[in-house]
Amino acid sequence: MTADELHTLDRGCVGLTLLRLGRNSEKLPPSNLMFGHPRTPQSATVLALGEAANAEIRRCRALRVAAYDELAAARRGPGATDGSPDVLRRLDEVMATEYDLRQARAAARQVWSDIPAEQIKQARTARTEARIHDGEQALAVARGYAAKFDEILSGEPANVAEFQRRVHNDPALSQLSDVTANLPTTGSPADWEPVIFAKHLWSGQDYVRDPAGREVISDGRRQYEATDSPKYGRFLPGPATGQVNMWGDFHRNRLGFLNYDYAWYDAPTDTWWRANHSETGDPHRPMLVYQSTSEAFFTGSADFDTTVVGIGFADRSG
Length: 318
Fold this sequence. Notes:
By secondary structure, this protein is of the alpha+beta class. The protein has two domains: 3-41 and 125-315, Protein-glutamine gamma-glutamyltransferase (Microbial transglutaminase. Chain: a, Alpha-Beta Complex), CATH 3.90.1360.10; 44-119. The protein has helices at 3-9, 13-21, 44-75, 85-113, 117-154, 160-169, 294-299; strands at residues 34-35, 192-201, 205-207, 217-218, 221-222, 224-226, 260-266, 271-275, 289-293, 306-315. α1 (3-9) packs across α2 (13-21). One of its GO terms (molecular function) is protein-glutamine gamma-glutamyltransferase activity.
């Protein structure tokens, strides 16, 4: 691997997917051809209060870690002692986060104790089955389109214009939006291949707003945040095509949670390749690469509530 490729790989799940797409220099995989499946009704109401309580624990943990880091930095300050005003202030913040975490844990225990164990088990099973079903249906949609793209590319279109013409003439592909928005910048269409990948994300993302509901602008840019509540109406597939408009995906995570997880699909083995996290240089937390079944991958985690399956184009000539 080249130095650039190794640097890309160090980015974890993002880097692994970008390498498969042959896009070393890009920030994130393309999002113009993403597909989904209408959400299967889930038994989420039974779990909602308990999982909100769990999310509060994770939030408090993250705040506690930050408070301890700030305390350590204050103690390293020039001439700092345990009696220094800044150190004392940071100590107060640490104590406050410790108290908040204890309260969050107690609240979570109370919430979960009020729900019968068998009911929790049934709800979790139903939700997992729904996630797997929806993910596999989205994959089937993407595979169908990828096969049509592959058929066109196998015909070795002479240039991008010819590729576009053939896409336009296909009854199904012509209904998709922004097909040519993220084509490879190298090679000819005869050298390209469609690559399937997927993204887990949190639907509850929005603009940061002030108390009056106005969007907050900083340095001329809108600010984004993740909300505690999901937005189930967002990232729904179009009824005719299954294509998902990814507007509203600002790549934000709730405090204490991951922001996204990418993987690319290996059709010959019917598996997904992904990484646990980016390479940090810490020998105790190495970046690991996993090969997962569709069932394992689509099960997801508490960090996410939405999965979309995408198609990108890779240049095989490079």
